[in-house]
Amino acid sequence: MSSSLDETFGAAYIGIVVAAMLLGISVIQGFYYFTHHEDRWILRGLVVAVLIFDLIHQILITHTGWVYLVSFSQQPAKLGTVIWSLLAEVLFNGLTAFCVQCFLTYRIWKLSGAKVWLTTIVISFVLSEFACVIAFAIIAFLRVKTFEQLSAELKGLSVTVNAVAVAGDLFIAGILTLLLQRSKTGFRKSDTMINKLIMFAVNTGGLTSICAVASLISILAAPATFIYISFFFSMGRLYTNSLLANLNARSMIRKAAEGINTITGDASISFKDYARHASSSKLVFQHARNLNATNISIQVDTTREFMSDLERNVVSRDGCLSDFKHGEAEIEEELSEVNLSNGDTESNISNGVGCTAV
Questions:
Q1: pLDDT in tens, 23-40
Q2: Pick from 94, 9, 30, 93: which is nearest to 59 by CA?
Q3: Is the distance from CB of 168 to CB of 125 less than 8 angstroms?
Q4: Do 242 and 281 fall within a single domain?
Q5: How many domains does the chain have?
Q6: What is this structure's pTM?
Q7: Which of 192, 226, 258 is the last residue of a domain?
Q8: CA-to-CA separations, 124 to 166, 187, 210, 272, in angstroms, rounded
């Protein structure tokens, strides 16, 4: 191997350490998920699967680092050979990505209203990437014995895997963002929650895409080093962490979505003031000429209830002025019970009261 140990196994070692740290975060998120959520068995099974794949992947890359840095430390001739665990880890990394992307594909299918053509495009990206990973693993086990052979035989396929991963992740993130953006209703509560979901969608595709781009650039710019391998080691962890972050965030979003906020307020409507400021009022009350009295007040209780679940928003308004059809009769009844300040306790309303909406 022409490159130094720093650029090869040193870079791979950094990737192993970073992957181990991300695995720890995944385990913590997984523990939180299973202790705070009661989902269907298929979703819980998905979480178990990706965590197991990540654990097996970490064991494989740790074994790889141990063999090259410890077992082969006194046998420099063997440092140029490719051991089985370095090849097998590719498969489990691909399985993790495949599981998470299938979950995101299902989410797109639901949000799009079961649009087959859109879901088909997403599935084509997911299956293409997974097919490239399977092909890489099979060819590597059958043909590759040294790192020179790995570079000669599989460089093109490695570039393809990373390129398809970038395209697929960006496409999925973009579609999720577009669908969520179109789901906005104009209500502050629901729009705030949708914005949070958009943030998670962008993070899901953004982090994995950045990692795949870094791996792609590294393999093209420095193919004789293992810098691209260090990025690839962490890619599966980013998928898992993104999935668990999305699932765990639902508790916060659901509380805001299912919470009902009730606002009750009192409004005092003055006939005198509305007559003076009729041009700027939303309701104009015209009273009889016999009303020389002071203000007549009407108590208005307004109740608004908002309940959002990303698909429906119900706004309920109850008030004594909400029914304009019977507004005139209600105002007359109110006026008949008012004691006027001029001492006329039994004044009759001859001209009636009108209520118009401006």
A1: 999 999 999 999 988 899
A2: 93
A3: yes
A4: no
A5: 2
A6: 0.70
A7: 258
A8: 14, 36, 21, 70
